[in-house]
Amino acid sequence: MQNWIDAYSWINIRFLLQGLEITILISVISVVLSFIFGSVLGIIRYAKIPYFSRIVGFIIDVVRNLPLLLIIFFTYFGLPAFGFKPDTIPAAILAMTFFESMMIAEIIRSGILAVDIGQMEAARAQGMKLGQAMWHVILPQAYKKMIPALVSQFISLIKDTSLATIIVVPELMQHGQVVYGQNPNYIIPVFVIMAVMYFIVCYALSLLSKYIDRRMA
Amino acid sequence: MIKLLVDNWSEFISGFGWTVLSSIVALFFSLIIGSLFAILEVMPSKVARVIGNVYVEIFRNIPLLVITMFFYLVIPLYVVKINGFTAGTIGLTIYTSAFIAETVRSGINSVDVGQMEASRAQGMTFWQAMRYIVLPQAFKLVIPPLGNQFINLVKNSSVLAFVAGFDLMYQGNAIASTSFQTVNTYIIVGLFYLVITLPISYYMQHLERKLA
C-alpha cells in the first residue's frame, strides 16, 4: 500500500500529467495536419487523374501497410542521412503526420465514394465545376459520414504516440518509464495510472463520436 | 542495399520468422478470446454483456505498448520468468482480441435476429444456436474486417522490438546500428513487412468489392 501512496506523490503525478500534455499536443497537431494532407491525397486518389492518382494510391497503400514504429525510426534515424535532423518532438509529429495522412486519405476517399453519385451529377448539371461540386455538395456530406471513422483514427493516433517513447519524446509513456525507473515497486501503480489517463482521453473521444453520430442520424 | 541484404540475410529471415510466428499465434488466440467476448456482449444476461463491454472498452482504449510493457515487466517480477517474445505476444493477443470482439459482435448483430429466434424455437440452446447457426453466418460477413485486423496485428507486432522480442523491427535496429546503413536497413525491413501486409490488403479489398 505504501508503494502506491509513494508512487502517487504529487511530483510524480504532475510529471505524468506533463507527459500527457505532450501526448495530446503531438496528437492534436498531427491530426490537424494529417486531416489537411489526407483530404488532398484522398481527393487526388478519388479523382482518377491518369497515372498521378494511381501513383498516389500506391504510395497510400504502401505506407498504410507499414508499421508506424518503422516510420518513426526512419524519420529520426534515417532522415539525418539526407542532411535533415529533426528534434524528437518534431520528428514524432512528422512521422505521425506522414502515416496518419495516408490513413485519413483512405477514410476520405471511401467517404466520398459513399455519397450518392447522383449528387455529383446533379451538381454538375446545375453548371457547377468539378471543384465547386466537390467543395459545396460532396465534401460536406462525405465528412458527415466519416466522423466515426475519423474519430476512431484519432483515438489510434493518441494511443500510437506512445511509440514515440522509443526516440525519447517526453510524452506520457516515457515519463511513466522515468517514474517507475526510480523504484521497481512503482511499476504496477504507474502502469495503472498511465492506463487510466490514456483510457479517459480515448474513451471520452469515443463517447463523443457516438453522441455526434446519434445527433446527426 | 543488396549487399546489406545478403550480408545480413540470416538476421532478416529470423526476424521475419519471429514476426510471422508472433502474428499467427496472437491471431489464433485473439480469435478465440475475441469471439468469446463478442458472444458475451450479445448474451441475454445483463451481467455477461457488461463483462464483455468492459473488457472491450478497456483494451481498445489503452495503447498496445502500455499493455505489452506491463506484461513484460510485471509477470517476471511476480509470477514467472518469461522472455520478451512471450510477453509481447501476450500483449498483442489481448489488445487484438478486443478489436476482434468488436468486429465479430458487429457481424453477429448483422445476422438477422430471426435466425436466432428460429433456432431457439427449434429447441436449440443459446450456445447451440450461436455455434451452428449464427456464428457461421457472422464470420462470413466479417472476413474482410478480420483481414484488416490481421494486417494491423502484423504491423503492431513491431512493438516486440521494445521488449527484445527478436522480431523484424528488433533485428532491423540491430543491423542498422552495426552496419551504419540506417536508411537501407529500414527500407529492407519495410519491404519484409509489405511482403506480408500488402497482398492481404489487396486481397481483402478484392473480397470487399466482391461481397458488396
From TrEMBL, chain A:
CDD domains: TM_PBP2. Residues 20-209 form the ABC transmembrane type-1 domain. It is found in: Cell membrane. It is a multi-pass membrane protein. It comes from the Bacteria. Keywords: Cell membrane, Membrane, Transmembrane, Transmembrane helix, Transport. The keyword Transmembrane helix applies. The keyword Metal-binding does not apply. The chain crosses the membrane at residues 22-44, 56-77, 89-108, 154-174, 186-208. Belongs to the binding-protein-dependent transport system permease family. NCBIfam families: HEQRo_perm_3TM (TIGR01726). PANTHER family: INNER MEMBRANE AMINO-ACID ABC TRANSPORTER PERMEASE PROTEIN YHDY (PTHR30614:SF41), MEMBRANE COMPONENT OF AMINO ACID ABC TRANSPORTER (PTHR30614). This is Amino acid ABC transporter permease. It comes from Companilactobacillus baiquanensis.
Automatic annotation (TrEMBL), chain B:
It is found in: Cell membrane. The chain crosses the membrane at residues 20-40, 61-79, 186-204. SUPFAM superfamilies: MetI-like. Its main location: membrane. It comes from the Bacteria. The keyword tRNA-binding does not apply. Keywords: Cell membrane, Membrane, Transmembrane, Transmembrane helix, Transport. NCBIfam families: HEQRo_perm_3TM. This is Amino acid ABC transporter permease. It comes from Companilactobacillus baiquanensis.
